[in-house]
Amino acid sequence: MDNLTHSLFGLTLARTSLGRAGSGTTSALLLASNAPDIDIVTTAGGAAAYLQWHRGPTHGPLGVVGLGLLVAVTVWAVGRLRTRDEGSRRAGFGALWAVSILGVLFHVLMDLPTSYGTRLLSPFDWHWFALDWVPIIDVYLLGILGAGLAWGRRRDRHGTSLQRPRSRSHTGRRAASLALSAMAAFYAGRAAAHRQALAEAPTVLAPLPQRCAPPPIALDRWPRAAVLDVAHQPADGCLMDLAAIPDVLSPFRWRLIAQLPDRYKLGNTALLAPRRAAREPAAPASGRTAAYENRWTDAVAGAARSASAQIFLGFSRFPAAHWRVDDRGITTVQWTDLRFVPPPSIDQSGRNLFFTITVRVDASGRILDERLGS
User: Fold this and answer.
1) 99-112 burial, b if ≥16 CB within 10 A, otherwise e?
2) pLDDT of residue 343
3) Would you state the torsion angle of the CA atoms of residues 263, 203, 134, 178, taken in this order, to the nearest 10 degrees?
């Protein structure tokens, strides 16, 4: 999720019973809710380094415990300096560490339902995991959390002096509980909508072949060997993967991606459309879908062995290869992650900037150049 959502969620947690541990817990929860994204410092090593480490160890088990400890030490030390001569009750170090671990853990768990995903087991397992329920920035989650905090503050301001501090804290906890309940209901609705979008995919993207393997039970996981070694896939046209990517604005609209050994099929679906379709003639499937070739030659397979390509293919969930050969026998290969290319914008030239990688190889397979972007 975006950092504003993480911050609002941390402030909401601080208004629950966790905030009763003492002063300092709000700061700890706010910092911990953003701490895993400290991996942004890897951009100093370039875009490839960022993709290599992004949502890696800082989002794994060691990061949850280690970053929780770092946040607790920071808040505890600053609190000792600021309240040396004050009588306010501050949270103990153990309580700060506990709430900080919770803050970091919830950050990771909020990244998991997005279509971007997270590497929640790194560094022990570098695979990405995702649920595809919500986009990276969800305006509805922002609205739920923002409204809960605003309502709690408004009730606090309009309370009488006789209602403080006990009634004031009770009002804040009730507002936080309502916001968290609404958030849970929203996630449940998104999960149901995602399941329905996947059920409609065979109709929207028809015809689709049988799956190469059974679908994942819950979490989508990548990279798969089939993705990184498309050149050795069977040519029977089986369905390698199928995903429904949430729309940024509408919870009813989803982008569908079907991966076959030599191509992708992409389309859109609106969950309210089937009722209209029952009363009106169905629109041709070709009007709602697009195709993106993904044919791997020996030159493409050779380009995939470059360092930058390995990083990008390890990050990308749906890497589509586009290549061309010039009159000197030099092959330019571009991969684009189709998660970030809506069907109306599909361009076989690979112009997708950050989510595109370009590698050039000569006729002998020697790598001449590699770079992120087109």
Assistant:
1) bbbbbbbbbbebbb
2) 54
3) -170
CA–CA separation, 169 vs 183, rounded Å? 21
Q: How far apart (Å, rounded) are the C-alpha atoms in residues 115 and 255?
A: 11
Which neighbouring-strand residues pair with 369? 360
Residue 224: both structure tokens together: 């798969």
Whole-angstrom Cα distance, residue 225 to residue 261? 12
pTM: 0.88
Number of Cβ within a 10 Å radius of residue 57? 18
Q: Which amino acid is at 170?
A: H
Q: Please determine, for residue 29, whether its predicted confidence score (pLDDT) is greater than 60.
A: yes
Does 251 sit behind a cis peptide bond, omega within 30 degrees of 0 on the bond before it?
A: no
Tally Cβ neighbours within 10 Å of residue 81: 7
Longest CA–CA separation in the chain, Å: 84
Residue 86 structure tokens? 């004050």
Q: Which residues contact 190 (CB under 8 A, 6 or more apart)?
A: 113, 133, 134, 246, 251
What is the layout of strands, in order, in the sheet containing 367-372? 319-325, 331-337, 356-361, 367-372
